[in-house]
Design goal:
226 residues, 5-stranded parallel beta sheet, 8 helices
């Protein structure tokens, strides 16, 4: 019998935290709940969770600061942010810090559970060591590393996810809606704006090889040419 997946929940609203904790436990997850970021960091080190669900606005240490510290220790454990913020720059900041997904409050428990299960499946599906050649670059997806000759640069989780989607189908158009649904969870306008930001970042990181392009195929999606 497999062990239950361990979730660290950091949420400072007692009523919401209790509802989320009990709902997840009813689905056979093992949950540790903290009401502030400092306590969550201590529990993270002791509990060793399989996934983190972090509220952005918390006392003592906010969710972004907590994620920044955790990512210095651990690049791979998935992070879902819970946030009342809806500005593109706020969501992009969360992804740049190493977040894998976000949910805007108020949210349904069913949606949270679906997002958790999808991240777990995605991690299992891509857990094998993979190194892909992209022109003169070597892309290591599990380690989120992009190497050009003797130079290395680290990618955020979201940058690695987007690049992986393009790299497994080089020189082919990758459907925009499919990428948004698989990586962001849905293909709404807000997420599309966020993805455009990450495409721009990847273009800059791949710029040393002039033969590499990420083309925007209007009305369809993106194509990685290399």
């Amino acid at each position: 019998m497999s062990k239950p997946m361990k979730i660290l929940l950091a949420e400072d609203e007692p009523s919401l935290g209790l509802i989320v904790k009990e709902s997840l436990e009813s689905r056979d997850f093992q949950v540790e709940w903290s009401e502030n970021g400092e306590e969550a960091l201590v529990k993270y080190k002791n509990f060793k969770p399989d996934i983190l669900v972090l509220d952005v606005m918390m006392p003592k240490k906010d969710g972004f600061s907590l994620a920044r510290q955790i990512r210095k220790l651990d690049q791979r454990t998935p992070i879902i942010f819970l946030t009342a913020k809806s500005q593109t720059k706020d969501v992009v900041e969360g992804f740049e810090l190493g977040g894998n997904d976000y949910l805007k409050k108020p949210f349904s428990m069913e949606e949270l559970i679906v997002r958790i299960q999808e991240l777990i499946l995605r991690r299992e599906r891509k857990s094998a060591e993979e190194q892909i050649e992209i022109g003169a670059y070597l892309f290591n997806y599990p380690k989120q590393r992009l190497q050009y000759k003797n130079e290395e640069q680290m990618l955020t989780h979201r940058e690695a996810e987007v690049l992986m989607s393009l790299a497994i189908s080089p020189n082919e158009v990758v459907d925009r809606s499919t990428m948004l649904s698989e990586i962001w969870g849905n293909d709404d306008f807000f997420n599309a704006r966020s993805m455009d930001v990450f495409i721009t970042k990847l273009r800059k990181k791949l710029a040393k090889d002039s033969n590499i392009e990420i083309l925007n195929v209007r009305g369809f999606g993106y194509k990685l040419v290399c």
